[in-house]
Amino acid sequence: MGANLEQQKVIESLDGPLLVVAGPGSGKTFCLVERTANLLASRDVTPERILISTFTEKAAKELKARISDRLQRAGAKVNPLDLTVGTLHSIFLDIIDEFRAFSSIRRNFTILDQFDQQYFVFQRLPEFREISGLEDFIRPSQNLSSWRVAERLCGYLNKLSEEAVLPESLATATATELQILGEAYALYQTLLGQYNYIDFSSIQVEVLRLLQLTEVAEQLCDRFDYLMIDEYQDTNTIQERIILKLGSRHNNICVVGDDDQALYRFRGASIRNILGFPKRFPEGACQQIYLTKNYRSHPDIVDFYNRWMDLADWQGNDRSYRFPKAIEAAGDDRAKRPVVFKVSGEDGEENWASETVAFLTKLHGDGIIKDWNQVAFLFRSVRNPKVTQFANDLEAAGIPIYAPRSNMYFERDEIRLMIGAFMFLFPQYGSIRASREGMQLDVWAYFDRCLGDFITHLKAGSDEQVAAWAKDKAKLHLALLENTNYSFANLFYDLIQFPTFSRYLGEDLTHAGVRDSRPARNLAKFSRLLNKYEYLYNVIVIQPDRLERDLLTLFNYFLRFLWDGGIEEYEDEAEYAPSGCVSFMTIHQSKGLEFPIVVAGSLDAVPRRQQSPLDDLLEAEFGEGEPFEPLDRIKTFDFWRLFYTAYSRAQNMLVLSCQENTPKARGQRNVPSQYFQPVYTPLKGWRELHFDPGAVKLATVKEANLKHSYSFTSDVLIFEACPQQYRFFKDLEFAPVRTNAILFGTLVHQTIEDIHKAVLRGDEQKVTTEQIDQWFRSNYANISQKERVYLGEPVLRIARRHVATYVDRERNNWHRLCEAEVELSLLKDDYVLTGNVDLIQAEDGAWEIIDFKTEKKPDLVDDAEKLARYRRQLQIYAHLFEEKRGVRVDRMALYYTGEEAGNPRITFNRETADIEGTIDQVDSVIGKIVYKDYGLRERPEKLCKNCDFRSFCDMTFCRA
Q1: What is the mean pLDDT of the segment spanning 98-106?
Q2: Which of 288, 407, 583, 949 is the most buried (most CB within 10 A)?
Q3: pTM of this prediction?
Q4: Which of 538, 469, 473, 534 is nearest to 497 (CA)?
């Protein structure tokens, strides 16, 4: 199907600012793909000079795959992987990495996710409390726990970053509260720098700061000829400033979005960005195109959500708070069959779940629903107790539910057993957990239940081995007198060798669906949580003199906060609606998705304020005149946008569902609330309708079009060494306890990289002994701080000598340097092959690829197997480079920085047949990875010695 008239305008409008207001199901991704293809075909522009941003990493991967397929069909000669496609955060991180020499963020930084950030602030609350007046502002009630205070403070700190408010501006603000927050913000930034941490908001702040540096701005503003920003309604203030700056030389900025689906105000997004975009340019300069033809939903569904939007008043004194538009269905299917109706429990009957089960089983039994994944329930929150109970009732009736964000992680059998096992292993926790008189934590009841589950399991006698092992360990820990040689994470891997837990990791689950493999992935997540805990509290082994403290921090703080906040379970980005399951998801989570049947819940909801006190203070202090939207109407606008998004996910049927209720006592509410009554009341109940299997046809859930990336070193070699290690550590993502110390090699490698980057920038004169020493010391400080691994002085001197020897040898050859740390990728039929080349040199038209090894040159005979592996690696890199640059690589070399006397190089000539053979081998291995062929013919004894799964494999397979 070709483009409609409005879509064609988008595809052909290439120059100058363009605003595309894209209604639901209107083909905006199709337009982005076709517009990109048109740019590459009709403009003298290379892929590297086009930037496309999406809201999620999954959307970015899908967009890359669709553009790649489109260009391949057209026989385009360009590499679509050279396009800059990603989320704004991922693109900004690449910018920081490229301009590291100008950045205040040091190398080897750690990115804090939401939990990490909150925990970091929680641990440092005493420092924040020294700021006069801060406690009163961020702790409105003494009943608010310190954990919640940290959460509130993080929200304020992130808001300041997202609004691009500088600490010095806050220091001179008229509002005392802003001055106080300015101090807190300055302290927070200092602490981040001290630990070399960054959060997601700080990434944006740093890129904006870099763009204010002339040298960086000149390069970045000349980097991209065309920018396309998807989901523009969900961008924040600082992101808009960065986007406008990047495109300031030509204003070839195309933004795409739907103001009616603006959902992320609570994360700092500003509706002003999309509604006010045309005013960022001279009058008449910005072209506006409306995509209003819906190719997703039945006409009755489109009519329904148009009526919903018409119920709200969007007009202001001098502007509308919504672009004027009416969505129209592309199809004209008006056949008489059920499309929009209700499935609800009767007032006073409490039969919501049973009615829903009856409806679903009727359609499933009649063959209308062919796969449970054709049904999605959408709620404001899936953690609401009523929603959780509703899901449990449906599961009890035989309807499988997939709800990875429903806060059920800690209720899963495998996690309760694992936590119970840890409590059993440390029986002293029960007597020491109250660290002060009268202390009582809600989580203790949960912990006690876990312990009870584990003891009941032991008494059942189904796993006598774990019972004997656990009893011995518990006795040892209760009377521990000396350091053990293991940590909590080691105990985890000891536990999973026993059938109590190994039953969740069987080979038969390798090809199981998301639900069946959920226990294995939950256990893997638990391993990562233990890894994070031990990092936060620097736990290396279990020590008697700090055991009580470690148990308290593990249970009373770390696990308690995770339990309190809830953990999301695994989601397969390639399968948003797993076959065989009905999806339960939040409306936010459903954004960008579509389902044959949408059951919209949360009909008891009412508009609620999302503005924080800080929003009002910032608007009053730094706002551009009057607030963009009337503050008293924002909650109503956001409420309508939220449920519009929910209703517009439906393809064939839209069902409104609730337990109807008329208040009969204080504290009860009308369900549906008054806001839904105008659209809910006229709907017929499902029992009043006839569902003819011959007339009611449902769409099937679309498969995600994703191509995964694989590299030779971190995928192919690991799989070849041991497919089971690949399954556990790469596929299921268990966190290894023992990580090989590679500090020495990383330190030498990064310092040599600093030298190369300086030479390539034209700063060869800066490569002095003093500067190299500074790079070396800075790299060591950053790596050791992050990894908490240290080198002795003699070893540091050897590492520094590696660098010095390299510089002395190669200083006269700097003119050969072409590129350093080159990321390469090649699009294959089913996957993307990636690699990273240390150095590319050229002289007289002859190209050479170099990979550094921080060791002495090996013996060509004794180490033939290792060298063969390295050669294959270089052959892959040569192939990737040739495909990307269109040149022929003449030589491939290993450079041994530890070789002091002789020639540090081992050089391989390029042989076409060898490279083709290696590529065929890689294709074969990646094929096995894709199809999860993890069969193990023989255990690799050398690898088994230091593998965390050794005990598991001893029990499951055979002893090595």
Answers
A1: 91
A2: 583
A3: 0.92
A4: 469
